[in-house]
Amino acid sequence: MKKHIATQYSGVHRLGSKLVGTLLLLFVMAMSAAAQDIIRVTGKVVDASKGEPLAFVNIMDMEMKKIVAQSDGDGRFSLNAHSNTSLRFSMTGAESQTVKLRGRDSLVVRLTMIDTNLGEAAVVVKRKVKELTITPTPIEIKGNMAYFKNVIGVPSKLFGHDCRLVAQRIFDNQTRKKHALMRPMVYDAVEYNQTQDRMYAFDMNGKDGDPLAKYILVKNDTLRDKHTDTRDAFMYMDSIFVKNPNDIFRGVIYAAIEDYNKIIYRDTIIATKGVIRPMRWLDFSFGSSEIADDNFIPKAKPQLRDSKGNIDLRFPIGKAEFNPNDEHNAIEIKKLQQQVQDIAATKDATVQALSISGTSSPDGKYTSNLSLAKRRMDYAINYFRMQMPENLRRNMKFSSNASVAPWSDVVKLMRKDTLNNEADQVESVARRFKGDAVSQGMKRLPFYNSLLQGKYLPMLRSVGYTMNYSIFRNLTLDEIKELYNQDYKKLSRYEFFHMYRSEDDEAKREKILRQALEVYPSFTAAANDLSALLIKRGTPDPEILRNFAGKKLYDENGNKQKVMAPAVVNQNQMVALLVNSEYQAADSLVEFIPKTEENRLLLAVNDAFMGRYDKNYDIIAQTGLRNEVVLLLAMKKDEEALEKSKGLTDDDAVTHYIKAICMHRSKDSNTSLKGNIELRKALTLDPSLIEIAENDADVNDLECIKEIKDKKNKKEVEKK
Q1: Would 592 be classed as within a structural domain?
Q2: What is the rounded average pLDDT for all residues in the chain?
Q3: With contact defined as beta carbons under 8 Å apart, do 200 and 214 qualify?
Q4: Cα(203)–Cα(199) distance, integer angstroms
Q5: Does residue 317 sit in the same domain as residue 464?
Q6: Rounded Cα gap, residues 460 and 197, in angstroms
Q7: Could you tell me if 90 and 131 lie in one domain?
């Protein structure tokens, strides 16, 4: 069965009258708010007479002719729309209302409810028969699937030959405050269905046909369960994926009966009475493994490093050569030479390239400045080429480039020093004059010699360098730690791996692993070992290996051929997923888990959570009597579970709770009553179980639950 199906039934029957919608078709429209006339509209829909919020009201953008939103359980809605569009609000059993936005971004819409009786004749019929009935049943959860099963009783006189019954299940996650519309059930009388088919030109499933066609069952004796002369009964079953099976769930069924023109009956009926999920009590724990596959253990290898710095070389005015013996220049040159020497002294280090770039000030002619800057950089690069040791210079690449700084850079420097008046004057000259005339204009400024030539123009004359070098990073642990303390982002995969594998402190180890994944997101070894660490700690995180488990990965040697994730990655991820109740995701990894004795229990537990009990019973039973009882309850072998539970001796809350389930399931009324005693013990020992018990269809002592809950609340109030 399909999951998360939301349906709206609105359309015009070909008999000439509009059919009132009976279901909710939820369209999600991704609207762009880039246009200027698109606004965000929020609001609330309420009953005009009672002021109560109205849920599941369809909102249609009349300009786009599409349903763009739906009110939630609190009657609230939000959507993007053109500021001048009209919004139509409609729901079963209410008069539709169209609202012109006119730029408004907040609305309160009041819908008038319709009297759904067909007049006096219909009222008489209603008095003679009982209402539609639905027997509430438990939601049964296996893995991440919630299963629903209800019998709907329909009075025969209410459901005539010209009628359609539509039932829409509304699934409510009370923990997350979310609703979901499930697969509808549509039940047509034979004559009604034939008329519909005829009116749609015998193509109800076509493009312009009945939107509910694929859900239709036609009333006949084979589809109807055993019934009396006054009531039909049929089964409404479905399932839905639940991401968090430990959440609190409720369910209602919205049902409506219509003839060709009107709603003749509608009701919303509670369809569930708690949840059945004994597997929540299965006690399991698994170890974790660090990676050992050589394909994914990083090896030391040459790493390309960039070294950048500035050299403040002084050139004589108008000259392309600098004096290396100048005291200032000598210090600057020494900085670069020292770095080269350090690299040369490092074993297996090789300098790849040296690039020098320089900037000249904008005073004077632009072409002359640029030419001078280029000649200066050419001189500088040739000078440093000759200073390089022959063994390094042989395979090095040398390059240089030059540029002229704009006057705007002068303005920025002056404003930084809060010389805004002077900066304004410089900016004005640069704006009024063009080309080489700008420099002449600047020379007329009263502060040209003192500020511009004396301070700011020299600041724009700079020389920078970039030196690329490779170095074989097979460093000692101390050297790696030193590099790590300087900047952990410069570490190679090998250095991260060597460092965290040598660290004993768990907190430091986790920190290093997370930093490794920050720098190298595809670092398989780091991801696996971090996952293993968290599993060992009892706080597994499935997100860490989400992009690794069950997938092909590049190995750590950078091979183009992808290889499957190591077995330990898949094993660790399955453990993390099971602990976090992501059973469907865990089951998807089964094919990647080696069928070894080591993994026998892991695979058995996974199967059990997915409802595959029988073949794994013996394996799980060996883990302890309590787990055996839990599995028997999941298998609905209630009498056997009750008998086995008599051997449970642990005096803890969960054991008493499991005993209560066994006793409450017993067909013997005295035994069932004894279950109340066990439930009371469980909730008293651990009041946190109250929330579970309130939604657990396997424990039915509501009075006991309320009593223990009241005592708990009273104690909390007294503490305050």
Answers
A1: no
A2: 83
A3: no
A4: 9
A5: yes
A6: 84
A7: no
